[in-house]
């Protein structure tokens, strides 16, 4: 009869350690060499039937337990590592099986921690719903990804980063004179670091807009990018090299606790630093003030896109500066909020940004047109908002791209000097909005997307309202 071979090295090691035996002592009892036992414990040699019988007779080992698979723990570990927070950490099942076999107690601990995490996440979700029913907005979610943490930290902080702004101004002033800042930055990359910039066609770089090759010292940019976005990518590469110390200081102030979150935050800070290089603080503040903060004029003055000029305005909130306290929100056509920032943090509690009546949604239906609104909230707080669609990377034939729009805003009382102020006084510009449908009690709203949690839904059988979510 063929002899069955079993690999159960970690289990043999646990038996030996439980008996407080050395490899030499156990090997002597089994009638094998210590080196052979060492190979068995490392799963490099099998347990034969004879060795199983010796283990049973000499050390009273339960053979069924020794031959049992760790399938239950492995299945539960697969569920743990399938969670979005851990997806991709373990590429295959082999490591999961090895963990379940070689360290079952540690595997059990991981499973218990994961169960506790899921239970706490469920409780947080219940708490979120309870707070919402009491009229409090909350963004508690069942699963918090590093990108969510970074967005929250940046939304709560001022968009003005003093160290980056000061370093960017000093850097631009030290460059050789010239009209085109982007050309000066490109020359700095070549002369100081030997980095050349090359434009690649779509087929050569189908999945990236920018890629830096350390070996050939070349910065590759996709031809999908507009000319303004190409200049921003060049400026971002310069920022990562010349302003690294200042970016690291701002990054440390965010107090992030994971490598992935820090990587995401570094990218966002470098993106802001690139705008500070293309539009130095003193120059852009002077130009914007003279143009009465006309975003199109600022964009033309610095040869940047509307998007880049709009994002620069909330970054001008230096203490004592004459710029209004702008805030900005970027949204796509599916309603996903991509970025939010503000001169004093994004005013989520006062403005919200989730109301379907906001001009940012209308801007997506009117590409290229600027929509100016005087937004009044339920507490009579008023904001001036400027919304407009923005262009992304050029698409090839057949591609479906995400359409995006920006909403730039500030308190209406602080908008007296803005070029958009007169348009906000028109009757058609007045918009009665709310922070979010679930927290808004405006009746007869044709734009309502959800019922309020503070009111019972539904009128009586004699009345039909304007919305599917009319309430009493």
Automatic annotation (TrEMBL):
Key word Endoplasmic reticulum present: no
Protein name: Short-chain fatty acyl-CoA regulator family protein
PANTHER family membership: HTH-TYPE TRANSCRIPTIONAL REGULATOR, HTH-TYPE TRANSCRIPTIONAL REGULATOR SUTR
Family annotation (InterPro entries): Cro/C1-type_HTH, HTH_RamB, IrrE_HExxH, Lambda_DNA-bd_dom_sf, ScfR_C, TransReg_Diox_bact_type
Lineage of the organism: Bacteria, Pseudomonadati, Pseudomonadota, Alphaproteobacteria, Hyphomicrobiales
Superkingdom of source: Bacteria
Coiled coil (residue ranges): none
Gene3D superfamilies tied to this protein: lambda repressor-like DNA-binding domains
Species of provenance: Rhizobium helianthi
Annotated ranges, domain HTH cro/C1-type: 12-66
Family to which the UniProt record says this protein belongs: Belongs to the short-chain fatty acyl-CoA assimilation regulator (ScfR) family.
Keyword terms of this UniProt record: DNA-binding, Transcription, Transcription regulation
Record flagged with keyword Transcription: yes
């Amino acid at each position: 009869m063929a002899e069955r071979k079993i690999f159960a090295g970690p289990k043999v090691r646990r038996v030996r350690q439980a008996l407080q035996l050395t490899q030499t002592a156990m090997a002597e009892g089994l009638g094998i060499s210590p080196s052979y036992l060492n190979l068995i414990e490392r799963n490099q040699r099998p347990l034969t039937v004879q060795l199983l019988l010796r283990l049973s007779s000499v050390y009273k080992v339960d053979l069924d337990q020794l031959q049992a698979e760790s399938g239950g723990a492995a299945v539960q570990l697969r569920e743990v590592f399938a969670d979005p927070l851990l997806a991709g950490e373990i590429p295959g099942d082999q490591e999961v099986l090895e963990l379940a076999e070689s360290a079952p107690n540690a595997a059990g601990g991981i499973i218990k921690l994961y169960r506790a995490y899921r239970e706490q996440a469920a409780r947080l979700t219940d708490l979120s719903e309870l707070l919402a029913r009491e009229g409090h907005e909350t963004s508690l979610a069942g699963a918090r990804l590093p990108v969510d943490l970074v967005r929250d930290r940046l939304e709560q902080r001022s968009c003005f980063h003093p160290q980056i702004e000061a370093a960017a101004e000093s850097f631009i002033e030290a460059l050789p004179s010239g009209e085109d800042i982007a050309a000066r930055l490109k020359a700095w990359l070549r002369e100081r670091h030997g980095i050349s910039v090359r434009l690649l066609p779509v087929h050569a770089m189908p999945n990236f807009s920018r890629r830096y090759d350390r070996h050939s010292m070349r910065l590759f940019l996709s031809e999908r990018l507009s000319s303004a976005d190409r200049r921003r990518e060049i400026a971002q590469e310069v920022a990562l090299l010349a302003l690294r110390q200042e970016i690291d200081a701002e990054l440390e102030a965010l107090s992030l606790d994971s490598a992935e979150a820090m990587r995401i935050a570094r990218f966002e800070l470098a993106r802001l630093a690139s705008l500070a290089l293309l539009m130095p603080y003193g120059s852009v503040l002077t130009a914007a003030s003279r143009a009465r903060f006309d975003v199109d004029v600022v964009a033309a003055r610095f040869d940047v896109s509307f998007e880049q000029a709009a994002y620069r305005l909330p970054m001008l909130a230096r203490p004592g500066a004459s710029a209004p306290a702008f805030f900005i929100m970027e949204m796509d056509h599916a309603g996903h909020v991509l970025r939010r920032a503000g001169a004093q943090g994004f005013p989520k509690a006062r403005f919200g940004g989730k109301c379907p009546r906001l001009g940012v949604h209308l801007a997506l239906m009117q590409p290229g047109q600027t929509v100016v609104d005087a937004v009044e909230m339920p507490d009579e707080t008023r904001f001036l908002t400027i919304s407009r669609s923005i262009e992304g990377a050029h698409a090839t034939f057949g591609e479906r791209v995400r359409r995006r729009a920006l909403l730039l805003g500030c308190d209406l009382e602080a908008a007296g000097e803005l070029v958009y102020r007169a348009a906000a006084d028109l009757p058609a510009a007045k918009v009665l909005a709310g922070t979010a449908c679930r927290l808004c009690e405006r009746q007869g709203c044709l734009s309502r997307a959800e019922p309020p949690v503070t009111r019972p839904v539904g009128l009586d059988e004699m009345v039909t309202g304007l919305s599917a979510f009319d309430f009493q």
